[in-house]
Specification:
- Helices cover 41% and strands 20% of the residues.
- It is of the alpha+beta class.
- The strands form three sheets. It has a five-stranded mixed beta sheet with strand order 7-9-8-10-11.
- A hairpin with a 6-residue loop joins β3 and β4.
- About 5% of the residues have low confidence.
């Protein structure tokens, strides 16, 4: 009888907790809609900090709220530990999101530079062919390849569609075959416009993907674990960040 009572008590507590969580989620979403009806909540779960809910929006943004949907924290949540120091929990969450979003990339839709030997790591780089720091980073590819790092380029024409940069990137992605795309990319990165071509291409889709994973400028480097490194870095610095010795 005691065991049966404990079972019912546990079930009741679990049901009560589920109801409270559902009510909290409803209040949070309802109040966000009052602020802006266009806001779409993707998921609400427990935050790392007791008393808060972690709210993931469809835009990829992460924010925090109390159970009543009265208080909202928009910004980064950090945790301090003696072992790790200050840990950016918000960025950790976003890295996990990016990892999922980038997982289904098709190499045939990318401009890929593979090392000759074993691939020890892969970086995905959102690039703009007319960006000076993107060109500087492009010069680091041989050094990255030499250390076993594969470089995948995704298109991110910063100034949007209808621009000369956008058209150049369409031409690159419409070049014939993987080697043709690499040659066209090398040409564009050297400052020479590639031969104009059009075809069904992923340039706009990749631009939108970049925006959804938090890219705001180029180059933007995304590691396999979802970390985002904004801006230029020399090859050895990137290799150190990849920690290939692990």
């Amino acid at each position: 009888m005691k065991n049966l009572f404990k079972t019912f008590a546990c079930l009741w507590a679990c049901m009560a907790t589920s109801v409270m969580a559902a009510e909290a989620e409803g209040l949070i979403e309802q109040n966000l809609k009052k602020v802006d009806a266009r806001i779409v909540v993707k998921e609400i779960g427990d935050a790392p900090l007791t008393g808060l809910r972690e709210v993931e929006l469809n835009s990829g943004e992460v924010l925090y709220a109390d159970d009543k949907g009265e208080y909202f924290l928009i910004g980064k949540l950090y945790r301090f530990t003696d072992k790790e120091g200050f840990v950016d929990l918000t960025e950790r969450k976003k890295s996990a999101q990016r990892k999922v979003q980038m997982a289904d990339l098709d190499e045939e839709q990318l401009v890929v530079y593979k090392p000759k030997g074993e691939v020890k790591a892969t970086v995905n780089i959102f690039t703009d062919v007319d960006c000076p720091y993107c060109r500087k980073l492009h010069a680091e590819i041989p050094a990255l390849n030499a250390q076993g790092v594969q470089v995948n380029y995704l298109a991110y024409p910063r100034n949007g569609t209808g621009t000369g940069t956008f058209k150049s990137m369409v031409s690159i992605w419409c070049a014939e075959g993987a080697e043709g795309r690499r040659q066209a990319m090398d040409q564009a990165k050297s400052g020479v416009r590639p031969a104009a071509k059009t075809c069904d291409n992923p340039v706009l889709d990749q631009l939108q993907l970049g925006q959804s994973v938090g890219v705001t400028g180029t180059p933007a480097i995304i590691f396999e674990d979802g970390r985002l490194y904004p801006g230029y870095a020399p090859a050895q610095q990137l290799v150190n960040l990849l920690d290939l010795e692990k």
